[in-house]
Amino acid sequence: MIKSLLLKFVSARDDELAPMLWATAYGFAIQWSYYILRAVRDEISAADRGNLQILWTVVFLVMLVAVPAYSWTTTRFTRGVFVPLANRFFILNLVLFYLALALLPESARPWIDRAFYVWASVFALFVVTVFWGFMADIFKNEQGRRLFGFIAVGSSLGGMLGSKLTASLVESLPAFTLLLVACVPLEVASWCVGVLHRRFGGGSDTTQAANRPIGGSAWSGIRVVFNSPYLLGIAGFIALMTYASTVMYFLQADLIGAAIQDRAARTVLFARIDFWANGLTLVLQAYFAARIIRWFGVGITLAALPVVAGLGFGWLGAAPLLGVFVVLQVIDRGVRYGLAKPAREILWTVVSREEKYKSKAFLDAAVYRGGDLVSVWAYAGMTAVGLSVSAIALTAVPLAAVWAVVGFRLGRRQETLAREETPAIQAAPA
Description:
single chain; mainly alpha; Growth Hormone, Chain: A; globular
């Protein structure tokens, strides 16, 4: 019965069901943990919005250290070691933040908040980047087109659970306990990695390249990016996406920070936005993502997000109201994670293992946060010269058009690489 129900939503073979479900559970646990922390981070941004550009500068600088450090671990350990190691490193960080908040005086709270904001911004990208790099390594391109949409369902369910728990428990739990609660799903995610690696990735069979350290240096994955037009195209897509999401994020901080003064009430609103955005994402992932990718291709699916974002920014420019923003935020994030996210991760199924782990970490983390840095100072400049919320929203519309073209062309290139890869695989000796 369960198998029949699953096959209504996903086109999976019998031997793919078990690894797909374990991968879905892994994504569920990661996003469950993150969405417990996300509303806390976003509340800090609303309370300290005058310093956001400085905080995002610090985030970028931290990324410049974190990416090579992570890349170094991939050169020394197998994926069965370095993937759960990354999760457990973040668990240790959460325990330390809890102790700092519980033991240090109240006067230290603003600085702890800022440190946590920087940490959470790094955490948000790293755990997701590592997750999808692992998925691109476990599943082939053809499998990714069929399965990634459903695997992403686990992430949305985890996000819904995390945001719902946060909204329900933020006022009843002892202070700062949410940080410890978030450690539990992170450890669950580490166990899921172990099962996927041992049962479906060859485990300890060192004759398989996938089960050996990647090799190279901490910087080799970065050098590869600048020699690959395909990876530079992904970098361009991420940069444009980052500008749009940064403008949206700062408009959120301004509109909600000005409309709602109580910190707990802001946290509840952020959690509710997260819940409904994840609900829309879930519907798109479970039923539409794989079908749209199959019917229209990766390029059209990638272009859908900038088209929706451009229309949304135009609407917000015409009516810069909190209610309009909430609706736009839910729709934008639903399309971003329900359609564009599975399509964007398919891009990585046609590249080498070094690119999947090292170059992907550089693009998804350092380039993403570098785009944040440029975008946040651009936003600060626009507000400094007196542009209104409406005018700032309208500046994103033409860039969204460029972003759509980049996404379409990038998807077409991925499909070409996938066709070139298939004959090579078929011709390889058994």
